[in-house]
Amino acid sequence: MKKKLNIYTCLCILLISIGIKAQETKPLIQSKLEGTVIDAVTKEPIIGASVNIKGTTHGVLTDFDGKFFFQTGQKFPYTLVVSFLGYKKAETVVNENAVVISLTQEQNQLSEVVVTALGISKEKKSLGYTTQSLKNKELVDTKETNFLNNLTGKLAGVRITNSQGDMGSSRIIIRGETSIAGNNQPLFVVDGVPVDNSQLGSVGGATRDFKNAIADLNPQDIESLTVLKGPNAAALYGSRAAHGVVLITTKSGKSQKGLGISFSTGITLSQVTTLPRFQNTFGQGSNGKFSFVDGKGGGINDGVDESWGPKMDGRLIPQFYSNGEAVPFVAHPDNVKDFFNTGLTYDNSVSVAKSDDKSDFRLGVNNQKQLGTVPNSEVNKTNFSINSNYQINKSIKVGVTGNYITTNAPALPGGPSGNRAAGVMLQFLWFGRQVDINQLKDNRNVNWNNSYYSNPYWNAYYNTTSQQRNRIIGDIHLDAKITEDLNFRFRTGIDYYNDRRKYKIKYGTNGTPYGSYAEDAYTVSEQNTEGIFTYTKKLNDDFSLDALGGFNIRNHSDANNYQKAPRLAVPDLYTLTNSRDPLTSSNIYSRLRVYSAYASAQLGYKNYAYLNLTARNDWSSTLPSSNRSYFYPSVNGSLILSEALNLKSNTLDFLKVRGGWSEVGNDADPYQLSTVYNFQTAFDGNPIQTSSQKKLNENLKPETTRSTEVGLEASFWKNRLHFDVAYYNTNSFDQILEIKTTASSGYNSQLINAGKINNHGIEVQLDGNPIQTENFKWNVGVNYSRNISEVKILDYDKQIQNYTIGSSGGVDVLASVGQAYGALYGTAYLRDANGNIVVGANGLPKADPQKKVLGHYTPDYLAGVTNTLTYKNLELSVLVDASVGGELFSGTNRTGNYTGVLAQTLPGRDAANGGLNYYINGSTKTLLPSGTAPNGATVYDDGMIFKGVYADGTPNTQVISAQEYYKASYNISEAYIYSSTFVKLREVKLTYNFDKKFARKIGFDGASITAAGRNLFFIYKDVPNIDPETAFNTGNAQGLESLALPTTRNFSLNLNLKF
Amino acid sequence: MLKKLTYITLFALTMTSCSDTLDEINKNPNATETPLAPYLLTGSLKQGADLYWGSDNNFNSSLLFVQHWAKIQYTEPDRYDVSNTSFTSLWNTGYATLITDLNTIINFPADQANTNYKGIALTLRSWTFLLLTDAYGSIPYKEAGQKVTPAYNTQKEVYTGLLEDLKQAQSLLGTTNGSVTGDLVYKGDITKWKKLVNSLRLRIALRISDKEPALAKQAAIDATSDAAGVLSSNNDTFKFTYTSSPQQNPASAWFETRDDFRISKTLVDKLTDLADPRLPIYAQLPSDATVGKYVGGANGLSNSDANSQGFAKTSKPGTYFLTSSSPAVIASYSETLFNLAEAVARGYISGNAEQLYNDAITASFNQFGITNAATISTYLNQASVKYDASNYAKSIGTQKWIAFYGQGLDAFTEWRRLDYPVLTAGPATVLDGQIPSRFFYPGTEQSLNGVSYKAAIAAQGKDLLTTKLWFDAK
């Protein structure tokens, strides 16, 4: 194989040489020269470097061994000019002796090229805003099944919130939430094609958290990922720029000279982290009593799904598996942990790429099989990708990209509505701590409780949520060179997918005795057609011009069709016709179209001063015709002070200041102009219509976001230290809000055009190489970002002070005037003037009838530090990231306290745990500091006193049982608000890059192996029992945790081979 | 070459100029902007019944307060350990669904709804407002559905306004005013609707009787002297009859998946004392056959104490109430008779209070399928049942309470007004021995209609469960 390749490559190089040679005059003298081009530091050969004889058109490319060969009429000595992308150009005078030419890597901000809006490459120095990129390596070395998670901690100003469990969504927010009510996720653009990142059909909490659609992409295919942070960078995307843009460039065959085959294989082990800490002293039951007969109240408290029962001290009690026989009542401390498996993900990719002077192509295939931590959960995903370009003639090039992605998940954890039939953590927080999970594993028909739950394995294996998604993303494009300066690009791209879910509940499931079956199908289509003219001209010695003008037509549609057989007729047949009842069904279809025209110009002066202008106009179908057209401009500039003022010194390499202002708009969702009535399931042949409870608005205007950004970039000591700081200020106003209104207004919500929110913040990126020797390098990358938001106005009449973003467990997430975005609003303890909690005569705390702001979910700042140590071929990198500030409401702690399963409910539960003695006198509990109770009354040792005062200010002395104590605050949200601050050891990665010579010896062009661990552990966190990072879903209602699946810690091993 | 590109560009740009296409694209294909009166009527009846008979307002709240049912598990609502998120559905569905849909009918032009539709809609809207004010006290009434932040009206304003609304409804209804479809309750029989209107007027007259006796008297006279009459047989009873899943009775649906309610011990004990033949209909025998008698669950126990009564050793509510086609009774013939008896006793109208009282009990027996005359007369002749003219509130209050079984909201209101039977809060209740006197306003009122809300509680008293409402004189 290898030999053949080499022959082929040589042939290519020869052909190229001949092609070039053919243009020359016949040589007079034959001079021969052999040489090698190598990297100055690594001494590795450089493949594909171009070697030219100075003053001629004669040039060759280096082969796989970095070697080149000349046979020319040129007389020795002559000068060679050697260049390669990313390296400094080198010139060497040669004679007939073989020569080795070393190239040094370019580390110069002056020539760095970055991808900007619309996929246009520009010199980074010319931009008046920040962009930040990640390379393929940073996405593939640690396999995440949702690649967005790989961005965590690596980009300043970008906040990723991890999925719950190991098969869920990830939320990405750039520079804070700029839309009060709308989607705040950035736009994703893959090779110029806007792609969908919806999270369809997830309502959050304990329900199934479906992956957001961008997770379909295979990171192996991604060449680079660039984040345009906010409107200043993304203004050309118009309506969709307000929340930033993530530009993804996939790999092509372009840089592959000759045929290249890459192979990558990886295996990842996942285990659940942050399981709640359970208590193992008291078992199922209530009031210290339990005895099992039928699990639904036939025995003593055997219908109770809580752990306020007897001590698990080995006393003999009939239990669910013992057929009435009294057996030892003992703890099974790992009964929850043992339920979960070690997750296993296999990931295999092969790609083939090739290019020549006319065409290039790359074909890739990736298969990923994930067996989740929840038993029976499984996802299979296969991606096929093609990227090919062909030069038709001197001026026209055509190309195509295509991705076909098929995802098949036979079973995903969590059900459609977080119900008792499928919620995983729900049944472990309402649980008996004595339950032996192995007894349940062996026989799914037995169960520890028949009032509410089914056997957890029954749920996992029978009550399944499955998902099948087929997706095509692709485009065809044409590039034409009209004149030397004027180019035209035309592209039409599509992202289309079908997503079908099937929800099965088995006949005989507790709570759903007849079972049920539902099908939920989505179809999403996003089509974009664009044409762009670009004009690049050096006007004179000082001025250069770079301009573009173009148009875009966007068509988006989505459809949903849901049908459910609410009760099955016969068991185990999952069809919509196997139903006792009429099917419940709904279908929604929506579409929109936006026409856009845009232009931009960049004027450069002497390579150190740049002015950029952009303008765009959109016409959106979702707005009324009078407000349909909207225009937005942007301006930004950069000045390279180090060049302009000639500040370059041994200390300072580069200094740039930049700044800009931009305005972007945003349209509405479809069908928001006229109020409608909905149909409900007909009653006995009588159709039912009813108000949609939502008053729409026929005078909607587009939303507007204005953003100002300034920044400074500098590097020192020959690029050993690089520094970038940005400050931005973003005002979004005329926001389209579906404000909740009191129902007594006739509607539960009304659509208005008013809200205003401000976000401002700073981002700092630092990159340094404290140690840099020939063999050893230590690189430190630091990023820090702080975003401060304030909701300014909700309606112009100032009647509305709060907008409810979402709710869970009695806590609302609000956009509240004068507050940071995402206020957590709920019931607080009633307190006296001194701040003491007020209790009633019964010794239980009282709730303040006035709800209060209890915290905010938005963090104060985010930071990430990556240390990379490179020794020869070995590279170790460690990423620690932190999110500081912000609060969350924890449903796990709330429920777990109520049910007494958590370790934190132990204090006070018996004398050994500090419980007070009391007896019951009539119906009042009376403290008994010592001695025996009067009249031989039973003495209990689980007394506790809630710390608080009576209404008259005197301290509470009323004893209550521990069970009452821990249940007392169930409806007081304040008790379960925690700081969400955490510091996490996010990633440790060890890579060995095989020596190229060695690799070649064993038949490869390159090989590397990476061992990595992700989400290893918390260095610090405040909230007990859960991972504070877990996202509720990808929506704006965050800061709510509701019996979320535990997150996972992953260990992976990856092997990359290149032939 | 350039030509081709120009064509492509022109083709694309021509598409941008058709604004009409964009309007077409934005026409909603999922729902209608033009509703139909019969469909709205069907929806209002169904959703009204669900609201009145469902868990939030009935068996998980008011039915516990009046000790018809009790909780044997998750006893928080039975201990009044509830919050201002507990009573949101009556408010939200009452206003944003029922009143809005009914207003849509009322505001239709004549060609979209004849006056009978409008009369029915106004009647149902009055009933909805009545439920709201009975439960919360002051409520948005005059400005409801008119403003984003409507002002609240006092109970006096609401009750007197409703009397006027019902008078108008009566005038809109007429057998010759056109036919009505979608009426699942009275099948378009306008004479029955007219009777219901008068029965509701009588109901409201008694609501205000302790506060505005003169107005109450006039209203009672108006209601009973109207030519259409009041509900005059069990066939006239206003009830919504469910069919089968998913259009099943809400209590029946609940019991399919959960088992946390029992009939209250208070009611079982009372029925046992009175040897009331309705007991086997109101309750089931405990599933543990060895118990062999009706055993109620005590109200207001801690979860553990409630549990220890034994799921199998206590009585579930009767199957009459728990089958999927069980009706939601909203205004019964029996209630009208009790109201007539009280109107007579108060001297508002003439008649024989004792006879009306006996008729009311008889109507209740008939309603639950007990028709044996001997059984009925034996019952009526008991000293403990006999009408006590010296304390009509006690006789009527107690028997009305029994007859209202399942109609939690009205049982709760009439118990507060008549103060009989005397109920005691359970041992683990959290209101210092008191039983709730109202519902909390939804917590969202504080944030969404704060100014109006504050004005309302300033006049009515703190937004507490124990704050007495205007009509509740004692």
From TrEMBL, chain A:
It is found in: Cell outer membrane. Keywords: Cell outer membrane, Membrane, Signal, TonB box, Transmembrane, Transmembrane beta strand, Transport. Residues 440-871 form the TonB-dependent receptor-like beta-barrel domain. The keyword Signal applies. Residues 124-245 form the TonB-dependent receptor plug domain. PROSITE patterns: TONB_DEPENDENT_REC_3. It holds the Pfam family Plug. It is a multi-pass membrane protein. Residues 1-22 form the signal peptide. Transmembrane segments: none annotated. Gene3D superfamilies: Carboxypeptidase-like, regulatory domain (2.60.40.1120), TonB-dependent receptor, beta-barrel domain (2.40.170.20), TonB-dependent receptor, plug domain (2.170.130.10). Its main location: membrane. GO terms for cellular component: cell outer membrane. Belongs to the TonB-dependent receptor family. This is TonB-linked outer membrane protein, SusC/RagA family.
Automatic annotation (TrEMBL), chain B:
Pfam families: SusD-like_2. SUPFAM superfamilies: TPR-like (SSF48452). It comes from the Bacteria. InterPro entries: SusD-like_2 (IPR041662), TPR-like_helical_dom_sf (IPR011990). This is Starch-binding associating with outer membrane. It comes from Flavobacterium defluvii.
